[in-house]
Amino acid sequence: MEGTLGRRPSLLDPSNPLHRFALELRKLKYQAKAAGEVAATCRRVNISRATYYAWLSGKQLPSRDALEITIKAWGGDVDQWLERRRKTEEQLVAQAAKKEKQRSERREATFVTTGGVRVPMPPRSFILHNHETAAHAKIWEAQKALKRLRRTDRAPSERSALLFLALLDLTPDKDWRDADRPAVSISKMMTWVRIHYNFEFPSHARDSIRCSLATLIRSGIVERHPRDPSPLDNLREVSYQVATDYFDRL
Questions:
Q1: Element (H, E) at 184
Q2: Contact call for residues 97 and 137 (beta carbons, < 8 A)
Q3: In sequence order, what DSSP letters do the residues of 208-243 get, joined into one string?
Q4: Domains 1-105 and 134-247 share a fold
Q5: 132 band by pLDDT with thresholds 50, 70 and 90
Q6: pLDDT (tens digit, 9 = 90+) per residue, 153-211?
Q7: Of residues 68 and 11, more confidently modeled
Q8: Domain 134-247, what fold?
Q9: Rg (CA), the chain
Q10: In DSSP terms, which residues pair with 112 in a beta bridge?
Q11: Which of 32, 50, 191, 199 has minimal CB crowding within 10 Å?
């Protein structure tokens, strides 16, 4: 039936940023009619039914690229929705930071006895236990870092952010101070992103990845390793590495 979610809609809380985003997405989905149906959307955006329903039930924020394709297919304003997604993302990160601050304050209020003296227990380092939240925050941080390094107002894509994180070997649980600059091939980047960020690049995504890397190379942020003046982009064994000057500025 047109205009339905295909399963019983879950109750959403408008005060929750992710739920609020899902409610607005549902409205657009209803307006899109046939184009918004699960089969048509999954086929067009290349996502699973589980992902489709996760978006509409407020359990997952769509990636920037997937959202752009979806909004175009559903007849919405792409720029408006990308801005709405950006604000939702910022709110989620702020929400996670607020919860961590509250946990830290509770830990600081706990006392231990050392050498007969009662002293406050030092706060433990911040670890996001929810992997998806940690990964989401790290991708957002990588986008901000790339935007600052490139000195541009245009937000980098999630693909560029994921490649940047792979080049820095920054898993969701690592601090930016623990970044490294290994030489990594495209194949290894794709595998690394799948393992650590649970994101599967399509088999045909190599050309898009090369384009993203080419942009980073033109910006001076990334370089081929070893440096070679000949265009070897089409060879799998070519590796890439974050340039020393930019690595030191992180």
A1: strand 184-185
A2: no
A3: HHHHHHHHHHHTTSEEEES--SS--TT-TT-EEEE-
A4: no
A5: low
A6: 777 888 999 999 999 999 988 889 899 999 999 999 999 998 888 888 887 888 889 99
A7: 68
A8: Arc Repressor Mutant, subunit A (1.10.10)
A9: 21
A10: 119
A11: 50
Q: How far apart are CA 94 and CA 56, in angstroms?
A: 22
pTM attached to this predicted model: 0.47
CA nearest neighbour of 73 among 54, 46, 48:
46
Where do the domains of the chain lie?
A: 1-105, 134-247
Checking phi first, is residue 46 left (phi over 0); if not, alpha (psi -120 to 50) or beta?
A: left
Residue found under tokens 């149906």: 37
Q: How confident is the model at residue 246 (pLDDT cuts 50, 70, 90)?
A: confident
Its CATH class, for the domain covering 1-105, is mainly alpha
- Provide the pairing of β-strand 111-114 with 117-120: antiparallel
